[in-house]
Amino acid sequence: MRIRLAIAITALAAFGLTVSGSARPPEKARLLTAYGWSEELDGFGGISALELGPDGSSFFAVTDRTLLLQGRLQRGDSGEVTGVTLTGSHELLTPAGKPLTGWRRDSEGLALRGDGLLYVSFEAGAKVWAYPDPQGPATRLPDHPDFNDMPGNAALEALAIDARGHLYTVPEAPLRRSEDLPLYRYDGTEWRIVQHITPSDRFAPVGADFGPDGLFYLLERNFGGIGFRSRVRRFDLADFDPKGEVLFTSALGQHDNLEGLSVWRDGTGQIRLTMVSDDNFKFFQRTEIVEYALTETLAKAPLSH
């Protein structure tokens, strides 16, 4: 997401203020970790997507300037995030094998197939590219006709892949004010709208993932003038409720601009929601890794879609 000038000025005016209040009592998830992440790396910041391995430590992340990061999360005795080890970084390439430049670099979503194939969604030009080799040229997937009508700052931020290898994406905003949010699925041949999600409370989709329970998790955020609120909704695509189920909603300013989501199961059987914030390359924002755990004792069986 690019912060517009008016938003940036408002946030700057609020810099240094402490936002009071606490999150709503979580019914389905509890906060485990909020870890500040910084690197002495040229181009670090603006992290828009995160994909963890099954161990909850190895990761890929992508910035909204096409920098792909690879590394491991360090964890303490209780599984909390205590550090980050960066093992690699490089620019993503176009299908022609060249770096993207300018506004075209708006990479926002990330999905990792079981065989290592990496997918990246872009807001600029509303497209999805595949990377058989993360350091090699991209392969552009076919577009859905709707992609041409999506505004450049409210397009394909959220990208996820299910157990069958089908991709799912949802735009940051409805195509028209009166509509719901279309959920698109790519089956290897074409994109189709498979469901419509009801937008609510002025939250916008920014990240997505499928959990080990086979359910679809959607990270959404709302900008409240002096800070962000975030929440995660969960959807059963086999028994679909367009409103979904809210797992948590953070207080205003509790976290920064959370945009990336990875859902996995830890060694105790708990499902964790690991998120990363996009600092928009602004000094008054921060990059942080935030992790919640579901409080449910029983998980649903994996679903096929």
UniProtKB/TrEMBL annotation:
Residues 43-281 form the Phytase-like domain. It comes from the Bacteria. Keywords: Signal. The keyword Repressor does not apply. Residues 1-23 form the signal peptide. This is Esterase-like activity of phytase family protein. The lineage of its organism: Bacteria, Pseudomonadati, Pseudomonadota, Alphaproteobacteria, Rhodobacterales.
